[in-house]
Amino acid sequence: MSFLMLVDWRRVKVKPFVSNLGALRLQQESIQMPVLMDKDGLPRIVLTDPNGSSAEVLLYGGHIVSWKNQRKEELLFMSSKDNLCHLWKFSIEQAKWKQHKAIRGGISPSFARFGDVGSLEQNGMTRNRMWSLDRDPSPLPPIDNHSSVDLILKSTGVDLKKPHSFELRLRITLSAGKLILIPRVRNTDNKPFSFAFSLCNYLSVSDISEVRVEGLETLDYVDNLMNRSRFTEQADAITFDGETDRVYLHSPDKIAIIDHEKKRTFVLQKNALPDAVVWNPWNKKAKALPDLGDDDYKMMLCVNSAAIDTPILLKPCEEWKGYQELSTVSSSYCSGQLDPRRVLYGFH
Ligand SMILES: O=P(O)(O)OC[C@H]1O[C@H](O)[C@H](O)[C@@H](O)[C@@H]1O
């Protein structure tokens, strides 16, 4: 039985009762959250929606590692190479859990730094930390069902170098087939600080060369493959035939990711996250990434909601709140059902 409990999960009042193999219930506010201790010994929270969709969240990295629709189809990409067991190693000699690396796939918050801009580790320091259940999500209303969970990551001594002391919260909600994320950063320091933030979404697609992204046309973007030079998007939709690593600036709050083959469109809606990152490593970079299968790039596309170009400035005690909503519409051009303008602008 893979069941190991370390009761140093701050803020979590653990009432373990072993219902069956590796199952735990953690008390979160007024309800008991079903938590799986998965085969890698990582605490995994299972969210379910009455319409049958589900999501699985790891405390490790505050990472969503599965989002399934009511037909139990997985909507997120997870690397074929990234088994989670090596993520979090119990180092006997140090007698404590030793963090490892970020998970390749799913959805994860990157805080304080984006990509390799600045001095912190790539894409921030929150992806390889153990988060906790947040027992005081105010001012958000308390959750009262199994479709939502509140996570929190508090700065530790290590972080107090830069950017000071903070509380990072993430509410994850499943509702009517939508996956809603509400990230919040509170400055608990006595000095202002600024940060970059992104929600990195690895979307599962049938074939990357058949995917179109609509809603970013005519925008300026920073090309991370061209020394961060700035360009203006000329195409009326973004399609993929090679490595792509761009930050679209001041993008609209609605973006459509159209997967013809699957007759599925992801609709990404966001708020207080003005930029949109579009990333696909393609074949060479995929081979170079140790935690990504060589052909995995064909089945994934990252479209991230982000605040990068203009870092967010927070005065002491101030709190920033973002919003991201992912949903899918089943459609295709040929059926005429999908007119991106209808998805993006609600034209009839
Ligand atoms: O390998 P990671 O730290 O997860 O970063 C993966 C990718 O994240 C972002 O999309 C950046 O734009 C890319 O430059 C980076 O390669």
Automatic annotation (TrEMBL):
It comes from Trifolium subterraneum (Subterranean clover). GO terms for cellular component: cytoplasm. PANTHER family: APOSPORY-ASSOCIATED PROTEIN C-RELATED, GLUCOSE-6-PHOSPHATE 1-EPIMERASE. Keywords: Isomerase. Its EC number is 5.1.3.15. It catalyses: alpha-D-glucose 6-phosphate = beta-D-glucose 6-phosphate. It comes from the Eukaryota. This is glucose-6-phosphate 1-epimerase. InterPro entries: Aldose_1/G6P_1-epimerase, G6P_1-epimerase, Gal_mutarotase_sf_dom, GH-type_carb-bd. It holds the Pfam family Aldose_epim. One of its GO terms (molecular function) is glucose-6-phosphate 1-epimerase activity. Substrate binds at residues 104, 122, 127. Belongs to the glucose-6-phosphate 1-epimerase family. It is an enzyme of class 5 (isomerase). Transmembrane segments: none annotated. One of its GO terms (biological process) is carbohydrate metabolic process.
